[in-house]
Each structure stands twice: as C-alpha cells, then as structure tokens.
TrEMBL record:
Record's bilayer topology term: Lipid-anchor
Keyword Cytoplasm: no
Primary localization: membrane
Name recorded for this polypeptide: NodT family efflux transporter outer membrane factor (OMF) lipoprotein
Originating species: Herbaspirillum frisingense
Length: 485
C-alpha cells in the first residue's frame, strides 16, 4: 500500500510533460496561402476586350456553378441534372471521398486514448499425465475441473510528444480534401461531357434534316438533267455530275445517323441508364441550337486555384506531402505510450473485491537510436515526394491557364467562322431569291434554281456544324474555368 502514493504524482507529471510537448510538432509548417505556385500573368492573353477589362474581378459564381442554364434549353438542364444524380463514375468518386474521410477520422482517433473491456470465462479439465497434473494430483483436495473468470477494463494512449501524430492527421485531412476536389473534378467533367454529347446530337439531328432536303434537291436536279438530255439540251457529263452529287448526298447521311445514335448512347451511359432508353425519349423532338452564352468577366489566372478542382487537389496533395515530412522527422525522437488495466480474476465466481483485484499500469518508451540511417532515408524520401508534388502543383497551375487560353482561342475562332457562315447563308438566300424571281419571269431555268437551292442547303449544313461547335467551345471554356460545382 506504500507504493501507490508515489506512483500517482509520477503519472500526473508524465501526463503534464507529455501534454506540454505535444503542442510542438516537428517538420515544416504549411499554409495554403503560401503555396509556391507557378508565376502566372495577371490576365489572359487571348481574352476579348470586354472580358479583359474585368479579368481581375471574380466572375459570377452562380453563372459558373450552373453554366448550362445559360443555354436556356430545358432538355439540356434535365439531362445534366440526371447525370449529376445517377452517373456511376460520380458515385464511385463520391465513394472514394468517403473512404478518404474515414482515413482522416482514424487519424483523429489516433490522438485520443482508447479503451476496451474484456470478459472471459474459461473452463478446463486438467490432465493427470501432464507435468502440472502429476504434481498437483498428489496434494489433498486437488480438483481436475476448474473455471476461471476474468473481467477487466483497459486503456492505452500514445502521447504525441513531438507532433508525429498531428502531422499524420494533417496529411490525412489534406488527402481527404484532395479526394473531395477530385470528386468535384469528376462532376465538372461529367457535366461538360453531357453538354458536349448533347450539342453534337442536336447538331447531327439538324444536319440530317438539311441533308434530307439536299437529297430531295439533288434528286430533282438529276431528274431534270435527265429530261433535258432526252430533249438534247444537256449532255451525259452533266447527268453524271448530277447523279454523283445525289449519291454523295445520300452517302453523307449514313455517318450523321450513326452520330445521332452514338451520342444518344453516350448520354444514356452518362445518365447511368441502358443505351437506347432515356436520351431517345428526351431528344425525339425537333432539334434547336441554342445560342452559346458568353462570360462578361473572367476569373484571373491566379484565381484558378480556387476554381479548378484539379489545381485544388494538387495543392492539397502538396500540403499532405509537407505534413508527411514532419511524420518522418518525428521518428528522430522518442515515443511515449501509457496503458493501464483494471481487472478482476477469480477461480470460483465473479467477485469484485480487493482479493480479486489485479490492476496493471505500463509506461512505454520507444526510441530509434541506432537504425543505420533508416530515419534519414525516410525523411529524404518524404522531402523528395514533397518536391515532386510541388512540381505537379506548379504544372497544374500552368496547365489550367493553358486550358483557359486554348478555350478562349477556340471559342474566338469558332465564333468568327460561325459569323462568316451566317453571312454566306444570307448571301445564298439572296441569290436564291434572285434566281427564283428570274425563273418566274422566264430569264432562268429550273436547273439554276435547283443549283442555287443546293448551294444554300450546303451553306446551312456548314452553319449548323459551326453553331454546334460554338456551343461546344463555350462548354469547353466553362470547363476550363472550373465551372459546374
């Protein structure tokens, strides 16, 4: 009974020292605002004048969050909502986020004591031929059968003297945040993929209508040339040319029809449905090409760190590798663990008394004093991984800026082509009106009218492709800016 008063102050002293030292974490500290990213320009080189003037202002978060609503297409809104609710890749990404968060919770739990309870009842019949049985059986009152009762409550705690567990917690939390950013990236990619497939589908549907009109015009022109050949007003070369154009128009329909079905299947899979189900129902109406929305303000290149999930994930992985340097460095220092067990043991029955009390207290110290450079190698490996993640983070920043610049260039060039084709279509419509008027007055033949109709339909086909490309280019810009979450 004299040892207990001395052990209590020692335990309190050890706990006080451990608590004081646990506030000191070895290794470099990290702040997200201090991430040494790549040197980026203040504004984009290929942004338009209107957007360039406001490039340092934060773009409307609402416009970027649900950019697809800017197309004012309810079918597109319905498809993307279904994709974000049912896509299997997104569900898998969210599951990975949950796994990473669970690992982070384990790191939190490692900082706290753990306790467990144990209850055991053991029955045994002693062999008389065993060494113990042969000796014990010679004593009066020996019983071969006995029951042993064990009841105990134990607790253990690894004191984080030099912050290794805290650094591990930082690393796991940063890894969980990186996984969450990856999940956002999957969400953005899926929304953009769905919009891209939708506009390709609508463009192919509109082209099919024009190609069918073109086939009808080519057929009329071929028949008219054949009649003129019978009357001697044409020759076989003109007929062969007309027939070749008709065959070419018919051949152009095949890949367009295939494109329609391929994009419908693509949308179905993105929506987590069987190919040939939802998209066929939702896109069976007459196709319409919505005007692509434009951004009046662009987030500055440096702001992509807060907009692009891939950059956010790269920065969080950089933070995690920085914390792992501290985890490795903590192995230079001793580790202290405390454990205790309050138990009762009896051969007769459960008896919670002083006679059956069997307490245990253990204080353990582990220190890797001589490991022949293993800790040095672990620290060097952690620093090397951090240097790699730093390069990846800088590359992610540059890649994000490149994506935006390329998207701006693509959007600008596609828009110029669309405007030029609109002018071509308008001129073709005017030419058709003129030749039709001349035909009505007998100044032109039916062949000229059909030829001009064919040219107008060809211009409409090219314009439809340009309008679909313009919408897809707008989607690419929103995707590059990190819109969609």
């Amino acid at each position: 009974m004299q040892s207990r008063p001395r052990s209590l102050p020692l335990s309190l002293l050890a706990l006080l020292v451990a608590t004081t030292l646990s506030a000191c974490a070895v290794g470099p500290d990290y702040a997200s605002g201090d991430a040494p990213g790549a040197v980026l320009p203040a504004r984009y080189a290929h942004a338009g004048a209107a957007a360039q003037a406001s490039t340092n202002q934060q773009a409307s978060s609402e416009a970027l969050r649900q950019w697809w609503s800017g197309f004012h297409d309810p079918v597109l809104d319905r498809i993307i909502d279904c994709v974000l609710a049912q896509n299997l890749d997104l569900q898998a990404a969210l599951s990975r986020v949950e796994q990473a968060r669970a690992v982070a919770q384990l790191a939190d739990a490692a900082l706290l004591p753990s306790a467990d309870a144990n209850l055991q009842v053991q029955q045994q019949r002693q062999s008389l031929r065993s060494p113990l049985g042969q000796i014990a059986s010679n004593f009066p009152g020996y019983e071969r059968n006995h029951t042993q009762y064990d009841l105990g409550v134990g607790a253990s705690w690894e004191i984080d003297l030099f912050g290794g567990l805290h650094r591990q917690r930082e690393a796991d939390l940063a890894s969980a945040e990186a996984a969450a950013a990856d999940g956002l990236g999957v969400r953005i990619s899926l929304a953009a993929e769905a919009a891209d497939a939708y506009f390709r589908l609508r463009g192919a549907q509109a082209r099919l209508q024009v190609l069918e009109q073109q086939i009808a015009a080519e057929r009329q022109l071929s028949e008219l040339v054949a009649l003129r050949l019978q009357d001697g007003f044409s020759n076989r070369r003109e007929l062969a040319q007309a027939q070749a154009r008709l065959a070419g128009a018919r051949a152009a329909v095949t890949p367009v029809r295939a494109e329609i079905e391929v994009q419908r299947n693509r949308l179905d899979v993105l929506m987590g449905a069987a190919p040939g189900s939802l998209a066929t129902q939702w896109t069976s109406d007459a196709p319409t090409m919505a005007a692509a929305p434009s951004l009046d303000a662009l987030p500055a290149p440096a702001q992509l760190l807060r907009r692009r999930p891939d950059v956010m994930a790269a920065e969080r992985r950089l933070a995690a590798s920085n914390a792992r340097i501290g985890v490795a460095m903590s192995e230079y220092y001793p580790k202290l663990s405390l454990s205790g067990l309050l138990g009762f043991e009896s051969l007769s029955r459960f008896e919670l008394s002083e006679r059956t009390l069997q307490p245990t207290a253990v204080a353990g110290l582990r220190w890797r004093l001589f490991d022949f450079g293993r800790v040095d190698a672990e620290v060097a490996a952690a620093k090397g991984a951090h240097a790699e993640d730093l390069s990846r983070f800088r590359q992610a920043m540059l890649k994000a800026t490149e994506d935006v610049e390329n998207a701006l260039v693509n959007e600008s060039e596609v828009d110029q082509r669309r405007l030029a084709l609109q002018q071509q279509k308008a001129a073709s419509e005017e030419a058709l009106r003129a030749v039709t008027e001349a035909f009505d007055h007998g100044a032109e033949s039916r062949v000229e009218v059909l030829e001009q109709t064919r040219q107008l339909l060809a211009a409409q086909d090219q314009l439809i492709v340009a309008e679909a490309d313009s919408a897809r280019a707008s989607v690419g810009l929103y995707r590059a800016l990190g819109g969609g979450w």
